[in-house]
């Protein structure tokens, strides 16, 4: 059963009417309703607030990393484990073909349904997850395979074992190593980009976001609790943090916003998967057109030039 | 990055700025063993309690005095100032918080960066100031670290970063987050040059600072009792729904778990650092 948010109620109503009309085989009604739906979608989704976009980014019907992998990666194999501690199901690694292009895919995976949510730890990786990701990224580098990373996590897991096994180091090491990984890399926020736990697979030649994804230094809930001392100020924190794809593109902090269907990936999974695939393939062509030195230089400059400050003497 | 910033170096001397933390009282109480000490006594001990060895937090100027050879420290990039790219306002505006930090510390950044000699060895030294916005990592702090890395490469010397930070600066949101990858990428370049980077973790070193440059040292040294970790204790407690074990996320805990190389008494810190730099350099 699909889940509808408050602001999608009217869309659901029209969609239900369409289904009813289809049962009646009332072609004329279907046509009218379809037009009505289009209008309503345009009206609703073009004026979403940042908080509504946050709800979409976390929507349970939104495709997760594994959904995208199943839709776009062919002849694939899953790779498991960090070779040291255990296999972290919150991070998945695959190798296969995207439209004929050999690709290594690393993704953060939320689970669907209670059992899977627990198994995937709600998409919150442990250090061994990030270390698995790094191991597989290094393998991609070794065999000159391009790397696609799919970000979707509330954040790295805050727990006893995670701290004991040095969550900080696992994230920090990925930041350093992915910065100098000499194979073409594209990282895409598909849902929630939660802080350092997201950035740990977000260092790449290209960093893009799906239209209704978010990327943030802290969850709006955490920010509201700390800076406002009031967990109810989530909406204010969401606005202040500027976490939507549109805002981050405007601030120059990401390279691109991917043209996810206006109605949202949760209503049009195929459309979203196609948009993601086409973006990846375009970027890959562009990156392959650069020499390794050019590509690495561009990436290093992009990574080290980010920041907003002024210099009094200049 | 360019190396031209050497020409914009500011030779501001390290003036002693009175902070709110320095109470007018001449007596200091050890937060651990509760003994009362005359302030001169604990100052002479570099704020290590002579009774129980507890390490009190020290300010930036005292830290630099502790590590740099006398009169050798030259500050760089002191004129970098935060802007407010998001026009961030929570209960106060970011601008206001920066102003308050400035009044308190005399600086507009939680990082003091410069060059000094340590027992005669040329070193780039970056020190975090917890009293400026909780030592948080923003664009200015990230830029100062990258420039310190560039100077280390240019002058073929080592880098030391002394962290004391609650983590990323929320008021700079994703700009702040990206300082993690910015500093880590720069440290990767330093490593390729085979120049040493020693990370010193003081109380506290948390969140985005811990999860970037602080954990990337060739050698990682923590001060006794320092709180070090990725997630805050309150968040972990909420997540796991139970109390945390004794000593969790303290320096000694990290040593036992294999996360850091050593726990060093503040009074031995300078010698340890310069000894290690001697071992690493000119081989």
Architecture blueprint of SSEs:
The complex is a heterodimer of chains A (314) and B (283).
Chain A: H1 9-24, H2 27-46, H3 50-57, H4 65-72, E1 74-79, E2 91-98, E3 101-108, H5 114-119, H6 127-142, E4 147-153, H7 160-164, H8 167-180, E5 185-194, H9 195-199, E6 206-210, E7 214-216, H10 220-228, H11 234-241, H12 245-250, E8 256-258, H13 269-288, H14 292-305, E9 309-311
Parallel strand pairs in A: 3-4, 4-5, 5-6, 5-7, 6-8
Antiparallel strand pairs in A: 1-2, 2-3
Helix pairs in contact in A: 1-2, 6-8, 10-11
Chain B: E1 27-29, E2 36-38, H1 39-44, H2 60-67, E3 74-76, E4 80-82, H3 94-105, E5 111-118, E6 121-128, H4 139-155, E7 158-165, H5 173-192, E8 197-206, H6 207-210, E9 219-222, E10 228-229, H7 233-240, H8 251-257, E11 262-263, H9 266-280
Parallel strand pairs in B: 6-7, 7-8, 8-9, 8-10, 9-11
Antiparallel strand pairs in B: 1-2, 3-5, 5-6
Helix pairs in contact in B: 4-5
């Amino acid at each position: 059963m699909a889940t509808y948010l408050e602001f999608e109620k009217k869309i659901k109503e029209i969609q239900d009417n369409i289904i009813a009309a289809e049962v009646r085989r009332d072609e004329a009604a279907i046509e009218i309703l379809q037009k009505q739906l289009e209008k309503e979608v345009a009206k609703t989704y073009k004026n979403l607030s940042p908080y509504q976009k946050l709800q979409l980014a976390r929507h349970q019907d939104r495709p997760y990393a594994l959904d995208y992998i199943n839709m776009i990666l062919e002849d694939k194999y899953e790779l498991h484990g960090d070779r040291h501690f255990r296999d972290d199901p919150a991070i998945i690694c695959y190798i296969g073909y995207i439209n004929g292009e050999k690709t290594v895919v690393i993704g953060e995976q939320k689970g669907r349904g209670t059992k899977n949510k627990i198994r995937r730890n709600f998409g919150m990786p442990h250090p061994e997850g990030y270390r698995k990701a790094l191991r597989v990224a290094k393998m991609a580098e070794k065999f000159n395979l391009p790397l696609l990373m799919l970000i979707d996590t509330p954040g790295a897991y805050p727990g006893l074992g995670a701290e004991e096994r040095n969550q900080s180091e696992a994230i920090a090491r990925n930041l350093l190593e992915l910065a100098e990984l000499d194979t073409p890399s594209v990282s895409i926020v598909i849902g929630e980009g939660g802080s350092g736990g997201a950035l740990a697979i977000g260092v790449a030649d290209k960093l893009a976001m799906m239209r209704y994804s978010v990327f943030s230094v802290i969850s709006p809930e955490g920010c509201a609790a700390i800076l406002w001392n009031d967990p109810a100020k989530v909406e204010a924190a969401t606005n202040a943090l500027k976490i939507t794809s549109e805002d981050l593109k405007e601030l120059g902090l990401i390279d691109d916003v991917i043209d996810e269907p206006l109605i949202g990936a949760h209503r049009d999974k195929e459309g979203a998967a196609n948009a993601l695939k086409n973006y990846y393939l375009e970027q890959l062509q562009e990156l392959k057109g650069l020499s390794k030195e050019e590509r690495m230089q561009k990436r290093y400059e992009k990574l080290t030039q980010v920041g907003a400050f002024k210099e009094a003497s200049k | 990055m360019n190396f031209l910033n050497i020409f914009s170096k500011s030779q501001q001397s390290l003036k002693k700025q009175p902070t709110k933390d320095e109470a007018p009282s001449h007596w200091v109480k050890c937060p651990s063993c509760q003994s009362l000490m005359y302030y001169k006594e604990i100052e002479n001990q570099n704020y290590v309690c002579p009774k129980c060895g507890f390490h009190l937090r020290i300010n930036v100027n005292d830290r630099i005095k502790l590590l740099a050879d006398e009169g050798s420290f030259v500050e760089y990039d002191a004129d970098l100032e935060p802007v407010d790219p998001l026009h961030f306002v929570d209960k106060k505006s970011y601008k206001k918080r920066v102003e308050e930090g400035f009044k308190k510390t005399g600086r507009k950044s939680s990082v003091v960066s410069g060059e000094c000699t340590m027992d005669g060895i040329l070193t780039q030294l970056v020190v975090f100031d917890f009293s400026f916005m909780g030592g948080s990592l923003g664009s200015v702090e990230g830029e100062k670290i990258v420039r310190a890395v560039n100077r280390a490469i240019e002058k073929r010397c080592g880098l030391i970063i002394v962290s004391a930070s609650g983590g990323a600066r929320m008021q700079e949101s994703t700009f702040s987050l990206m300082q993690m990858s910015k500093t880590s990428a720069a440290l990767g370049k330093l490593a390729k040059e085979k120049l040493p980077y020693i990370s010193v973790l003081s109380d506290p070193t948390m969140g985005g600072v811990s999860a970037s440059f602080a954990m990337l040292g060739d050698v990682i040294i923590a001060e006794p009792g320092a709180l070090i970790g990725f997630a805050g204790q309150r968040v972990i407690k909420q997540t796991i729904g139970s109390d945390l074990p004794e000593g969790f996320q303290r320096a000694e805990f990290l040593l036992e778990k294999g996360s850091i190389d050593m726990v060093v008494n503040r009074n031995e810190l300078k010698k340890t650092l310069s000894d290690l730099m001697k071992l690493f350099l000119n081989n």
